[in-house]
Each structure stands twice: as structure tokens, then as C-alpha cells.
Design brief:
The chain is mostly helical. The chain is built from four helices and no strands. It has helices at residues 5-29, 35-44, 54-85, 89-95.
Length: 102
């Protein structure tokens, strides 16, 4: 069974974007919440700073959507590539040489 690359890319983008957005919004309400996580994200996404400003929330959300989409797409592509090369139980049975009775 192969994965739908587009569907997984969209699902991963929504999931990761939503997770980052929720942490950013909670950090906006309670500044002590999610600080280390947002600083980690800021160390990966150029131009994003974990200041809690509205502009940083928008930048973080945009980066997370793009990052999640690319990650989901690469995962589905790699999975489909590898699942095509893995022999199924049926193909293993058909490639075996029958043993002749003595």
C-alpha cells in the first residue's frame, strides 16, 4: 500500500502548523509557557524570534506550515520508494523453487 504524497504533506503541514500556533498563542497569553520550545524553533527558523509578538506568531506559523508540508512530502515519498522495493509475502512464495519429492 502506498501513501498519498499530497494528502500526507497537507496533513503534516496542518498538524505541525497547528501545534506551533497553539504554543505561540499560549505563550502570548502566558509568557512563561513554551519558552524553551519556542527558542528551539527560533534557532531553526531564520528570522523568527520567540518574542511573543503578533508578527512573530505569523512568521512562526508560516515556517511551521512549510516545514511540516515538506517533511510530510519527503516522508511519504521515501515510504513509497521503500515499500515498492520490499518483497511481499506473496512474491516471496512465488519466487521459491519447489522441492521435488524423492
Amino acid at each position: 500500500m502506498k501513501l498519498n504524497v499530497k494528502a500526507l504533506a497537507i496533513a503534516a503541514a496542518v498538524l505541525w502548523g497547528g501545534a506551533v500556533l497553539i504554543v505561540e498563542l499560549l505563550h502570548f497569553i502566558w509568557p512563561s509557557y513554551g519558552g524553551p520550545f519556542l527558542r528551539l524553533i527560533a534557532s531553526v527558523y531564520p528570522g523568527y524570534h520567540a518574542t511573543g509578538s503578533l508578527w512573530d506568531v505569523v512568521k512562526g506559523l508560516g515556517y511551521a506550515i512549510v516545514d511540516g508540508g515538506i517533511g510530510g512530502m519527503v516522508f511519504a515519498w521515501l515510504y513509497n520508494l521503500l515499500v515498492g522495493k520490499t518483497p511481499t509475502p506473496e512474491s516471496r512464495l512465488s519466487t521459491q523453487v519447489p522441492i521435488e519429492p524423492e
